[in-house]
Amino acid sequence: MAEGLRTDSIYLSLIIPAYNEELRIAGSLKRVLEFLEAQSYSSEVIIVDDGSQDRTVEVVRKISQGKDRVKILQNGKNLGKGGAVQSGMLQAKGEYLFFSDADLSVPIEMIGRLLTKLEKGSDIVIGSRAKPEAVVEIHQPFYREFMGRIFTRLSNWILGLSVSDFTCGFKGFRREVARDLFSRQRLKNWSFDSETLYLSQVKGYRILEIPVTWCNDRATKVRLWRDIITSFLGLLRIRLNHYLGRYG
After folding, report:
1. Which CATH superfamily is domain 8-243 in?
2. In 3D, which of 107, 53, 128 has the Cα closest to residue 215?
């Protein structure tokens, strides 16, 4: 990593991708800031607006006025969740980089559990709803949970992995690892989780899964059948990209 990207004064970066989130982002950002301001370490919050057509950016600017730790990145168009997370990860300056969904389905207070594992040597720590100790306070509809399990099995089979939960939107990385993985990322849609974890295995990084508390938000942006199809095709593209040497 280039020395110009090092900023030792920031310990933790939190990336939150946002697309048309004007109704949820205010409450989530206030909760995040309240939590981070109570911690002993320095931090930054990067809201990545992924081409929103509503007042998402305006709401964030109003809440973050006078708060230097909040930064806004704006994608010129909607790239997809993977593209938004990638933008934030490559701009973040913390020693440890996390991303979280805008709805805080995993409470921000869980970040300490993952951070501790990174500090002890793990390269990547991912939240899991499938571990026995996980607490799912509000479940997704049955058909979504079923399709999620199918996608996990397909991801593990096609990519040769052993991960219990690919799509939980709560993951943390050491800075050097994040720079390496997200600079190689090619998929911008929901398949990016599988892609980065596949690249992690190829690169020999240490992945640790941590059970988390999770609460389904009924206002999800997931479009089930469309996203199932594109995610499955994404798995095939990951294998093809590797075969063609596109990951460097």
Report:
1. Spore Coat Polysaccharide Biosynthesis Protein SpsA; Chain A (3.90.550.10)
2. 107
The count of other CB atoms within 10 Å of the CB of residue 219 is 9
Whether the Cβ atoms of residue 18 and residue 47 lie closer than 8 Å to each other: yes
pTM here is: 0.92
Tell me which residue has tokens 């409470």. Answer: 107
Nearest Cα neighbor of 77 from 167, 184, 183, 188 is 188
User: Which DSSP state fits 109?
Assistant: G
CA dist 117 and 139 (Å) reads: 27
Q: Report domain extents, the chain.
A: 8-243
- pLDDT by position in tens, the chain (length 248): 333 333 458 999 999 999 999 999 999 999 999 999 999 999 999 999 999 999 999 999 999 999 999 999 999 899 999 999 999 999 999 999 999 999 999 999 999 999 999 999 999 999 999 999 999 988 777 877 888 888 899 999 999 999 999 989 999 999 999 999 999 999 999 899 999 999 999 999 999 999 999 988 766 655 666 777 888 899 999 999 999 999 98
| Run of H or E including 72 | strand 70-75
Cα–Cα distance for residue pair 133/27, rounded to 1 Å? 28
